[in-house]
Amino acid sequence: xxxxxxxxxxxxxxxxxxxxxxxxxxxxxxxxxxxxxxxxxxxxxxxxxxxxxxxxxxxxxxxxxxxxxxxxxxxxxxxxxxxxxxxxxxxxxxxxxxxxxxxxxxxxxxxxxxxxxxxxxxxxxxxxxxxxxxxxxxxxxxxxxxxxxxxxxxxxxxxxxxxxxxxxxxxxxxxxxxxxxxxxxxxxxxxxxxxxxxxxxxxxxxxxxxxxxxxxxxxxxxxxxxxxxxxxxxxxxxxxxxxxxxxxxxxxxxxxxxxxxxxxxxxxxxxxxxxxxxxxxxxxxxxxxxxxxxxxxxxxxxxxxxxxxxxxxxxxxxxxxxxxxxxxxxxxxxxxxxxxxxxxxxxxxxxxxxxxxxxxxxxxxxxxxxxxxxxxxxxxxxxxxxxxxxxxxxxxxxxxxxxxxxxxxxxxxxxxxxxxxxxxxxxxxxxxxxxxxxxxxxxxxxxxxxxxxxxxxxx
Amino acid sequence: xxxxxxxxxxxxxxxxxxxxxxxxxxxxxxxxxxxxxxxxxxxxxxxxxxxxxxxxxxxxxxxxxxxxxxxxxxxxxxxxxxxxxxxxxxxxxxxxxxxxxxxxxxxxxxxxxxxxxxxxxxxxxxxxxxxxxxxxxxxxxxxxxxxxxxxxxxxxxxxxxxxxxxxxxxxxxxxxxxxxxxxxxxxxxxxxxxxxxxxxxxxxxxxxxxxxxxxxxxxxxxxxxxxxxxxxxxxxxxxxxxxxxxxxxxxxxxxxxxxxxxxxxxxxxxxxxxxxxxxxxxxxxxxxxxxxxxxxxxxxxxxxxxxxxxxxxxxxxxxxxxxxxxxxxxxxxxxxxxxxxxxxxxxxxxxxxxxxxxxxxxxxxxxxxxxxxxxxxxxxxxxxxxxxxxxxxxxxxxxxxxxxxxxxxxxxxxxxxxxxxxxxxxxxxxxxxxxxxxxxxxxxxxxxxxxxxxxxxxx
Lengths: 459, 459
Known about the structure:
2 copies of one chain form a homodimer.
Chain A lengths: L7 E2 L9 E3 L23 H4 L5 H8 L5 E3 L2 H10 L4 E3 L1 H7 L4 E6 L10 H13 L4 E6 L3 H12 L4 E6 H6 L1 H9 L3 E5 L5 H9 L7 H13 L4 E3 L6 H20 L6 E5 L4 H15 L6 E7 L4 H4 L1 E6 L8 E6 L21 H8 L4 E5 L1 H15 L5 H20 L4 E6 L7 H9 L9 H9 L9
Parallel strand pairs in A: 5-15, 6-7, 6-9, 7-8, 10-11, 10-15, 11-14
Antiparallel strand pairs in A: 1-4, 2-3, 4-5, 12-13
Helix pairs in contact in A: 2-11, 3-5, 5-6, 6-8, 9-10, 11-12, 15-16
């Protein structure tokens, strides 16, 4: 039985993308501009310089340059762990008995354990280029913190990571990996910042949140000389860097003479989803193809499926610029029983706009269903997925099962963003049967919506 | 600055080996035959059938078939995670300032985290083919147990893993990964076997050892209907399966028009080392090339560098056949402060014979030096290595530094067997400065040698 399509397709170094793709250049309508939190007017690029590295601030604001050269040093770094394979899920297809063809782009085969390294190395590179002498960031599940620690260690840039306290306590080994790469790890909220002190004074026992850790990291950056803040998701610049996932995927599929009918990604802040779908969304925007594009988010933190499309702060401390996005309110705290990442209250403004304009779909899935898919997948494909990635697996399996019912041989592409080696506590809970689902009530969500910022003339 | 050699070379599926290479077929002198522990006479293949799957027992005894076809199903499984990349360590070379060219074959990019899956899937396949209904094994650091759990889950073969108790307690997440793949994990020594009961009665607080866990797994196999025992190292069959590492490496180097002057592997029981060096050792045996081949073992468990070349049991309970190998004595217990694997008292009989006959060198390194190399490597190459693998890194770095002194541009190939994600406790100890070295005294070793089995007419 000849198999024309290999199990794993790796591009050669020559085939690797030399430019990132900026999806905004092809959007018919742009995402709403971010607002300066002081003036409530659209922020200028200069206003971002105190917080962001200049080159990254420029990328953040650039909605017209379609392709942006990847600096050669970053290309060289990419070559240490990329190209990532495009994998044909032969065993998963067989186990499901589906006529669908399932492909996944696997970004977990690097020590950071996820796709986050794609943007981390770019951000560290530009920071070094500008002559910055340290960086700050936050991390929740720990993938971004690990990736940035690796990148900063490579460029010998001191890094302070504010790690959401509940994660800091539950994942001591994540912390150790980051420390191996010389990062300083501070559980958030902490007494090292004013905003941390304030949040602790309100609730000394809080487990923290991403939004809160962002506030602390930003404060530390703006109060430290020659230091800036970097973020691993949500931002336009991050989606730009992560476009390498989609560009490689599309090229690999072209080599296989394939094109996806459905593209599926997990969605927290949007870094992986935005990167994976970028060139396929381009085709859709330009009328060249019409793949279905599906965001899969956790039912416990359902920003796209149940959030408001409104201006909101990117952090809990309300110090960042405001972005128009699907949001649950910047002080939304996902249930403590929610395992893994995808806990952010908002969603990438680019993806929010595309979703709002009908270019993509979104579904929310419960975590026991996600872990069911994770374990099933692991047994067929021998990769233990990160809980975040398993949201996309759940979506792909469900679409493949629909194909089984209808007999359609659709081509499904999903993003497998990372591995779950640091998430065994959550796997244990699933295997022991102690994992439960949590879905916020409408009343829960309403409280967050009521606290959305009031902006005269806008909302 | 053009780089002819890519950072990572992946063979295509077409280029992947379709046969394993059996090094014994080219050895001028064979390893001494294994002995039946009852008769102290050379064991027949039939005598192995109660313990081993028949096909594997035949492979164990086959010293003449040079190439053995890899069954198509195993080839297909290999394609899920192989070929593994041959990586040019550009950054490591630069950081060391060495003229040496350093290559490493990276086997850690699969969920088992190491090269162990190469033999695990083969052993599970042959067990399934024979109609066996369950398997037993032991695991120390956990890489073999994880790999076999994955392989058995794939073939829906129930598996019982006796996990060295100290490891069971120190690495709860390793256990969880194996449980995710449906394996039953029992801390060893346990009350589930007679040998376990006996060892516990002598020392109820023992942390266990690989040799002891082997005894339990063998007892469980021979007392359970339609069940057999499988082992992840030491055996000839394991080196056969692991030859895929060396075959792929050699082919990749040929594509790059390279040949190693030095081949370096870490050595515990010999599974990785034997696989990596196989085709290069063939060249050496046939007089086609003369690479230096270096085994790197821990100073705390120095079987090659300080052991006796003698017949010994493969397990602590003295129930297995006897093999002639470099050994520290079958009841040797490595210091509890020794982190990671490479704790076995003996060494592959094939490698022992080659070492004894002068075809390879061996060095022993202290664990703080190993972790120093591990952290240095991680920062340059962005891969967090397993402590076991870091022994080979240490060896490669030291050879590269010698090249720096002499100005020689030697080509070094080493095996990076796996990742250290489940070894963060050990990394913490190193980073905290609490890791210490342990080197057994001559008196310590002498005790083990005195207890080597007495075999009339032989030793």
